[in-house]
Amino acid sequence: TLQVEATDKAGNTITRMLEFTIDTTLTTPTIALDHKDDSGITGDNLTNAKKPGFILGNIDVDASRVVVQVTHDGKSEEVALTKSGGQWSFTPTAPWGDGSYTLTVTVEDKAGNVSHSAPLTVTVDTQTAINSIALVNDTGIPDDNLTNAVRPHFRVTVPDDVNAVRLSIDGGKTWVDAKRTSAGVWDYSWLTDVTEGVHTLTVEATDVAGNTVKETM
């Protein structure tokens, strides 16, 4: 509180008070991928959401300006945010394409202090694939999917980020897990005899972002 006293030549005195605040600090904000959009492995900042949500933290109550900067493919844009429902958050208005995005939050308070969050890089991955399915012990004419082996051996090739491959020959009622034998290659040999006749193999692959794809042979 500042107190000012003024006296004129006649000896009259007046006093005035002024309250002021010195504010030199601002908390460092944070930004994190919303757990509901953190698909696949928790905490890996991979998502299969095209419009992922982000939660902001450590935003001081006297914040007058909150901006998130999004950088992708060398281009940046800034989005001014407002608090909603007691929470600071950000969700893109338009779908994001696959790729990496770096987000930084900038906060300015009423005193003009500015603070920046650590950059957060997330990867949007909305699709995966099964490149090929092969019957390894295909006997007779090559690639005709005919075999005299009652315990067929299958090989599945997929993108390197696939972390689970499973197979079914009963329409998905039961599944067996293939084993990763090298980068992008998964194998499984049936452990019990398969009855003679035509069978449909269903293969399901899931990548680290949680995307799943199925193919049949």
From TrEMBL:
Pfam families (UniProt xref): Big_13
InterPro entries attached to this UniProt entry: Big_13, Ig-like_fold, Ig_E-set
Domain Bacterial Ig-like: 25-126, 131-216
Record-given protein name: Bacterial Ig-like domain-containing protein
